Every structure is written in structure tokens, then in C-alpha cells.
Amino acid sequence: MSDRLDLETDVLIIGSGIAGASAALEASRAGLRVLVLNKSPQLEESNTYYAQGGIVALGVDDAPDLFVGDILESGDHTSDPRAAEVLASEGQEMVDRILIRELAIPFTRSSPAALDYAQEAGHSRRRILHVKDTTGRTIEERFLAALAKRKTVTLLADHTAVDLLTIPHHAKSPVAYYRAPRCLGAYIMDNTTRKVRAVFAPVTILATGGCGAVYLYTTNPDGAIGDGYAMALRAGARIVNMEYVQFHPTSLYHRDSDGFLISETVRGEGARLETRDGRAFMDKYSPQGDLAPRDEVTRAIYEEMIATNSSFVFLNLASYAKTDIRKRFPNIYRTCRGYGIDITREPIPVVPAAHYSCGGVLVDEWGQTTLPGLTAVGEVSCTGVHGANRLASTSLLEGLVWGTRAGRRIVERFEPGIPYKRSEIHPWYYPRREEEIDLALIQQDWRTIRSTLWNYAGIIRTRKRLERAQADLEYLLHRIEKFYREAQMDAKIVGLRNGILVALMIARAALSNPVSRGAHFRKD
Ligand code: FAD
Ligand code: SIN
Q1: Could you tell me the fold of the domain covering 1-244+358-421?
Q2: Left (φ > 0), alpha (ψ -120 to 50) or beta: where does 144 sit?
Q3: How far apart are CA 259 and CA 274, in angstroms?
Q4: What is the CATH architecture of 249-352?
Q5: Which of 33, 142, 294, 450 is catalytic?
Q6: d(C-alpha 501, C-alpha 498), whole Å
Q7: Crossing angle for the helix pair 81-94 and 395-412, nearest 10 degrees?
Q8: Which of 72, 359, 473, 496 is such that its CA lies 20 to 30 A from the CA of 481?
């Protein structure tokens, strides 16, 4: 970290995806000093960047209450209707004002005068705005470009938040234990120098995204290991619904592919799921057929894979496309072509993969967590919108809406400074170790975490599998904590320490909930 960087800011935002970026834009409108971190060397690296399908906006012949109805239905009636109403009633205005007018996102048009609304599973209307099949990339790049122009915003890549700085945990005086808990900022590490420093802020925003990458097979990039959930847990914030891990039905099945997503909008444009011998099967499982909610499609694929003794099913776009495939899905076309699959002529082999965390750090309608001083927005949070199963293309919108609302609320209630002297807080302390971390240990621990979750806390769960997962992960937690205390400080060990905690949160939540709902399916 540059030495001239303040160790104090008005708003510290951990994460630069759509949720963190929306909060930064809003908070900086009032001139607050905002520091935005990304642990990756590339500022744009995030789940947001890889979003394909699009973002919900109300379409033609549409209304907020229809959208709310679809959210509640997809969520298996476990969503908070008040949160769904906030999303449905404010989302449209923010998409218009921020994405279309301010950031000038070039959403695909069906004609020069009309936006193109795509269809995805669980939606009763065509209502998804998209930039062909690379919606997230465009949104992310435009947000970062807008933030880079703001004088009071500092964007800092390659810096990892290691832990939240909280009272009483990091106070020097034991008397602090009689004071109300509060977040005062975070300890952050420069990944290159491995130097850790405290950043003090009256408001800290967790915008660290999801945790799909704690599973063996996932659509998420490597960094999505749930640092935010682990930091929030250690800090004492309330976390809920971690058993509701959503699996996307269709990721590319190919030896060399790393969970590349085949967007649900592909089925929205007519594609059908088929067994290896060409039999369409979704009508057997749901009256909505190929456009049934994601959890139902995922389980149907799983059943068919078992029944046909196959490691994948086919997604046939070539025979059913209602659109010009290469024009509508240029990224999917190009990527599959790179793997030797021509999606205009042949079906695409697909398998389900971990995709989205519906649970997270519990927040209210302004993103406030149960820990004063700590706000959470985006996938790391649980607003109540998604319940047990998220409706497609609602998470970019949730990041935009809650990020913007959180930024606005922070501005309205802003009080500068923290209610402690810096001298009352412990500087970062970590015993100095000379020995480099052993990468073989880190990699093997990750393999264990990922395959344990995939096999025992995956699409179909049983009590026995979950008990086994919990026991194995608890043992590993103990080993990894020891490893963390003895190893040299490094982003890899920080990530592993968080990953094991997230895996345990999922396994424990899944074990303690015997009721199958949405993405959590128990077959005991
Ligand atoms: P992210 O965009 O993931 O950003 C989190 C940021 O936090 C990252 O920059 C990360 O590097 C940083 N970070 C994490 N930990 C730390 C740390 N310790 N220190 C510093 N920085 C840290 N949703 C839709 O609505 N529509 C879609 O079409 C869609 N398609 C998707 C396709 C794919 C392949 C994937 C993986 C997801 C898709 N989703 C989609 C889901 C959606 O992209 C995410 O839920 C959403 O982008 C999350 O935004 P976020 O801002 O909360 O987190
Ligand atoms: C997709 O394009 O299928 C992903 C959409 C989402 O996860 O919301």
C-alpha cells in the first residue's frame, strides 16, 4: 500500500463488484471519502464481471406485483415480501437512472426504439435487460470508469481485507468489553508486500460477494470463497440461510472448462435439456418444462444423470433456437467453439454447478447488519429477497438497489470519526515467520473442502452425509487454524482460513435444517 494512503477514511468498502461500486458511487455524491478494495490484482475481477443473462427491469405488460409474485414463487415462499417489494418498486428507477442514463450501459435493443427483454426461468414475463451475453462485464467496466473519475474515491486493487476491526475484540483495554460491540474498519493486507495495516472508518461496507468456489464444481471465479461471511462471523454479525446454496443447472461439461456458464437465457431462447440419447425430459418434472425454477431443473438433471449413468446431459440450442445464435450469444458461441463445440450445430454437454449463495450476513432494507458500523450489500448479504432459491437475474439488481440505498443512508446519517482514539486499538499483530507457506498443504486442504461440500452438502443432502461433512470439516478447521498461526502471512492462507469457516457454516446450517425447501434438498 502506498505510504501516502490515509489510514482513515469515511467509508471503507470491501469489494468492487456491482454492490460495492453502487454504494461507492452514491456515498461519493455527497463528497465522502471512500476507499474501495479488491483483493484481486484486477479491479474488475468479481462475480459481477462474469454475469451473462442480465438484470431484471420491468418489461412490456409487466408490473412490480407480478415481479414480486415470481420472486416469492421461486423462493418457495421463504423470501421476505417486504424486501421483494423494495427490489421490485425501486429497481426499475435505478436501472433507468444509474445504468442507462448515468453509466450509458448499451443494453441490447430489439429495434432502434425498443430494448430487448430476455426470458429466464421462473419469470412470468420477458423482463431481463442484457448486453448480449456479457452483461456483467459491461456494467462492471462502466462502474469502475465512473468511480475512477470521482476525486474522493480511491480504488485499491491487490489488497485483501484480513479481518474486520471491532470493539471489543481489538481494543487494548479490557474495559471495552462493557461497551456495545462496533465495527471500526478493517485490517487490510498489501498482497505484494504482505504488510497489514488498520484502516479506520465510521462505516465499513462488506461487498465481498459469494462463495461458490468453496465447491468442487462452480460457475464462480476462484476468488469467490466467501471471505466476507467468515470475517462477519468472527466479528459477531448475524448470518442466516447458509444452507441455501443455489446450483446453476447448466455449466459446460468439458475436461478443460472451469465451470463456464451456459446462461439460462439460452433456454429462454428455446433451448431444451435432453438426455445423451436425445430425449427431452423437463416436461416430466415440471409444468413449466425447461423454464422451471432453477432448483427443480438442477434436481431433474441430477436424476437423469443417475438414471442414464451419465456425467452430463445435453442442452440443445441448435435444434430449437428462436434467435440468431451467434449474434445473441457471441461469448458462449466463441467459448464453446474454443472447446471444439459448435453450438449452432450440436448440443452442448452441461452439468449443474454451485452458483449463488442465497443466505448471508443478515441486513435490513438499508443494508445495516446486526453489528453497528457494519453494512453489507450484494451477494454476501441476506436481504430476504431470495429466500431458499433466487429468481434468475435478480442479484445484479439487488446489488444495485441495496448498494445505492446503503450509500444514501450512510450519507444521510453520517457522523465523521470513530468513537475511539486510534491509540486505544491494537495495531495489527502477527508473529513474524520466516518459513514460506507450503503450497502443497494449501492445495490439498482446498481439495478436501471442495470435494467434501460437493459430495456431502451438494444438490441432494442426507443427514448422514452432512454429519460426515461437519465432522471432517471441523477436524480440518482445527488443523487450518494451527497452520494459519504458524505460517507466514499471505493471501493464500487468509483465503484458506476463511474457506474452511464458510464450508462449515454451510454444512452446519444444512444439517440443522431437516426441511427441504428451494435449493436445500434433504433426502434422509
Ligand atoms: P462480486 O461481484 O462478486 O464482487 C465481490 C468483490 O469483493 C470482488 O471484487 C472480490 O474480489 C472482492 N473481495 C472478496 N473478498 C475480499 C477481501 N477479503 N478483500 C478485498 N476484496 C475482496 N446475476 C444476475 O443478476 N444476472 C446474471 O446474469 C448473472 N450471471 C452470473 C453468471 C456467473 C458466471 C456468475 C458466477 C454469477 C452470475 N450472477 C448473475 C450472480 C451475480 O453475478 C452476483 O451475485 C453478483 O455479481 C454479486 O455482486 P457483488 O457485488 O455482491 O459481488
Ligand atoms: C444466467 O445467465 O443463467 C445466470 C443468471 C443468474 O444467475 O441470475
Answers
A1: FAD/NAD(P)-binding domain (3.50.50)
A2: alpha
A3: 19
A4: Alpha-Beta Complex (3.90)
A5: 294
A6: 5
A7: 90
A8: 359
* Pocket lining: 227 vs ligand 1, CB cutoff 6 Å: yes
Indicate if ligand 1 lies below 6 Å from the C-beta of 253: no
- Residue 96: CA count within 13 A, CB half-sphere: 7
Mean pLDDT of 384-407: 98
Atom of ligand 1 nearest to the CA of 221: 36
* Residue-level pLDDT at 263: 97
C-alpha 17 – ligand 1 centre gap (Å)? 6
- Reported as a single tens digit per residue, the pLDDT across 462-512 is 999 999 999 999 999 999 998 888 888 899 999 999 999 999 999 999 999
CA of 347 to the centre of ligand 2 (A): 20
Is 294 part of the annotated catalytic residue set?
yes
- For ligand 1, atom 12, name the residue with the nearest CA: 15
Beta pairing class for 55-56 and 128-129? antiparallel
DSSP 404-467: HHHHHHHHHT---S-SS-GGGBPPP------SPP-HHHHHHHHHHHHHHHHHHSSSSB-HHHHH
| Domain parsing of the chain, residue ranges | 1-244+358-421, 249-352, 439-512
Residue 3 has pLDDT above 80, yes or no: no
Ligand 1, atom 38, residue with closest C-alpha: 51
Pocket test residue of 37, 108, 208, 335 for ligand 1, highest count of atoms within 8 A of CB: 208
Q: Quick check: bond before 168 cis, omega within 30?
A: yes
Helix (H, G, I), strand (E, B) or coil at 110: strand
Q: Which of 390, 335, 330 is nearest to 134 (CA)?
A: 330
Could you tell me which residues come within 8 angstroms of residue 453 by beta carbon, excluding any fewer than 6 positions away?
214, 215, 216, 354, 469, 503, 506, 507
* CATH value of 439-512 in 3.30.470.10, 1.20.58.100, 2.60.40.10, 2.40.50.140: 1.20.58.100
20 lines ligand 1 (CB under 6 A): yes
β-strand 360-362 against 381-382: which pairing, if any? parallel
Q: How far is the CA of 356 from the centre of ligand 1 (A)?
A: 9
CA of residue 52 to ligand 1 center, whole Å = 12
- Residue 247: CB atoms within 10 A of its CB come to 28
Position 319, amino acid: S
